Amino acid sequence: MKVIACCLCSFLLLSCTFTKTDTQITPSTSNHGDSVRHKEEELNSELQWKPVNKDSLLWKSKNGDIGIRTSFYRDDTGHIESYLTNFRDSLNTPYADVIDSTTYTLIVGGYGFGGYFKDRKNIYHFFGNSGGGSFYIVDGADHNTFKSLNNCYAIDINHVYDLRFGVITDADAKTFKIVDNDMCIAKDKNGYYRGNTLLTEKDYENDPDTKAIVEKDKKLQTRNSRSSNRDE
User: Fold this and answer.
1) pTM score, two decimals?
2) Looking at CB atoms within 10 Å, which of 24, 105, 191, 195 has the fewest?
3) Number of structural domains, the chain?
């Protein structure tokens, strides 16, 4: 009996030990997320980020880095404030080496969904996503003619640009016009667009609201054409 009791006690002791060990070596996802947040907050505090000017479009660290304040998202802890400081090119070029902070301004949009910015040299685009976003120089943009059309589109003499996804490759800048501001619908000689997408008949079938707006515009266009012909 003593042997059996001894074995039973040993078994229970081992069971408790393993249970405790499992608890210690299995960190919760939430704890890991909190750790990531804490490290990022510590780094931001150490770098002492301060806005370059009143609009807070650019920030400057104690080391002289120029940054864009944004955030990345984690399922376990939500949005975590962060700063982008380098272009994602082959040289990982620092923003401080390129951006002229004294002339840097917002054209349209922002650092959330997407936006366009400029300084005396370049046009820049921010693409927002859960990883903190990306920021780059818009290659081929005409600095002198680049402007906002509305909260969905920008344009220059050669290209049309979607607020979020950048240049719309097949859009015709010379004939591009806004049809509906709220729905981000536009048209050119090639057809109708919603955002950066050239719409097809299948798109209309799946989106009755867009179809109604396009049909209304086509009727207005026909009416204006007939009126113009009568005047001639």
Assistant:
1) 0.81
2) 24
3) 1
